[in-house]
Write a structure and sequence with these properties.
- The N and C termini lie far apart (65 Å).
- The chain is globular, with a radius of gyration of 24 Å.
- It is of the alpha+beta class.
- Strands 1, 2, 3, 4, 5 and 6 form a 6-stranded antiparallel sheet that branches.
- The longest helix is centred in the first third of the chain and has 27 residues, at 2-28.
- The protein has 10 helices and 10 strands.
Length: 301
C-alpha cells in the first residue's frame, strides 16, 4: 500500500511538471494571423451577445472600427501574449471595469515556487505611486539600498519606465470616464504585467531620480533569513481575527478593518481595501454590534 502511495505521488508530480511544461510551450507558439482574426471576431460576437449595455460609453461605430482595426494590424503570427497586447486595449475602451482578458503568462513548477518562497521579492518590497507617465517609490519598509520615499524610478534595465506605463495603462479596464482608478490600479499591477512579459528575474538595474540627482541601484532576490522564514510561517497561521479581517500574508495587512477613532469616541470607521466573500458577513455583523453597543449614532441616508 505504501508503495502505491509513493507511485501515485510520483505520478502526480510528473503530471504537474508536464502540465507546466506544456502550458509554457504553448505560450511560445505563434498563432497564424487568420486564426487570430477569427478569434477577434469570436470575442466581439460574445461580448455583443452577453454584455447588457455594450454601447453606453462608446458608440457602436467606434467599437466596430476598433475591432476592425485590430484585424487590419495582424499581418503575421503572434504569440498569445502579443495578441493580448493588441486585443485588451480595445476591451478596456468599452469602459466596463469588470470586463477584461486574463493576461497569458508562463507558469512555474512547485520547485520554482518553493525557491521563490525562500527568497525576498525584488520589486514587491516597495510601495509605489503612479503620476502621469512616472513611477515613484513611496514606501521602503526594509530600507533596501536606503532608497528614500519620493524616489522616481526612471528606467528598469535601461528601458524607460514611461514606456511601460504607456504600454500597461491601456490594458486597464475602468468604469465610465473615471480618471482616478487607472493610476491607482496601475501602481499595484505594474510589476504583474512586467513579470508576465519578462518572467521571474533574479536581478535588475534601476535608474532613479531623487532631489535632482540620478543614481543606479542593482536589485537582487536575497535569500530569506531564518527569522524571515519563521515570520512567514507564523503569518500563514490563520487566527479567527485574521479570517474575519481577511488577512493577506503577502503584504502583512488586512483587507477589512474596523476601529473607533479613540478610546472614548462614538465615531468609528470601516476600511475595506478590496471586497471578499470570505467571512465578510461575520465582519460586518461584529462591526455593527460594536457600533450599537457603543451607542454611536448611525448616519441617515
Amino acid at each position: 500500500m505504501q508503495k502505491n502511495y509513493f507511485f501515485l505521488l510520483v505520478l502526480l508530480l510528473v503530471t504537474a511538471c508536464g502540465s507546466v511544461r506544456k502550458h509554457n510551450e504553448r505560450q511560445n507558439i505563434c498563432i497564424p494571423a487568420e486564426k487570430l482574426k477569427e478569434d477577434v471576431d469570436f470575442a466581439y460576437s460574445k461580448i455583443k451577445e452577453m454584455h447588457p449595455d455594450l454601447f453606453w460609453y462608446i458608440s457602436k461605430q467606434d467599437l466596430d472600427n476598433k475591432f476592425d482595426s485590430i484585424k487590419n494590424t495582424i499581418h503575421e503570427p503572434l504569440t498569445p501574449l502579443q495578441f493580448y497586447f493588441k486585443l485588451q486595449p480595445v476591451i478596456s475602451d468599452i469602459r466596463e471595469g469588470h470586463l477584461s482578458l486574463r493576461i497569458p503568462s508562463k507558469r512555474i513548477t512547485k520547485k520554482e515556487v518553493k525557491a521563490l518562497e525562500n527568497k525576498k521579492g525584488m520589486f514587491s518590497r516597495f510601495e509605489y505611486y503612479v503620476k502621469g507617465d512616472r513611477l515613484f517609490i513611496i514606501g521602503n519598509k526594509d530600507s533596501i539600498e536606503n532608497i528614500p520615499p519620493g524616489t522616481e524610478i526612471i528606467s528598469i534595465d535601461h528601458t524607460p519606465v514611461s514606456y511601460y506605463i504607456k504600454r500597461y495603462r491601456r490594458l486597464i479596464s475602468s468604469d465610465g470616464f473615471n480618471t482616478t482608478f487607472t493610476p491607482y490600479f496601475l501602481k499595484d499591477l505594474f510589476f504583474s504585467y512586467y513579470v508576465a512579459e519578462k518572467g521571474y528575474e533574479n536581478k535588475a538595474t534601476i535608474e532613479t531620480l531623487y532631489n535632482g540627482k540620478k543614481k543606479e541601484y542593482n536589485l537582487t532576490r536575497e535569500s530569506k533569513s531564518e527569522a524571515d522564514l519563521k515570520k512567514d510561517k507564523d503569518n500563514k497561521k490563520l487566527t479567527k481575527e485574521k479570517k474575519i479581517n481577511d488577512y493577506i500574508a503577502f503584504s502583512d495587512s488586512y483587507n477589512r478593518n474596523f476601529k473607533f477613532l479613540d478610546k472614548d469616541s462614538s465615531i468609528a470607521y470601516i476600511k475595506v481595501k478590496s471586497f471578499s466573500g470570505d467571512y465578510s458577513e461575520k465582519f460586518y455583523k461584529n462591526a455593527f454590534e460594536k457600533i450599537k453597543n457603543a451607542e454611536s449614532p448611525l448616519p441617515d441616508y
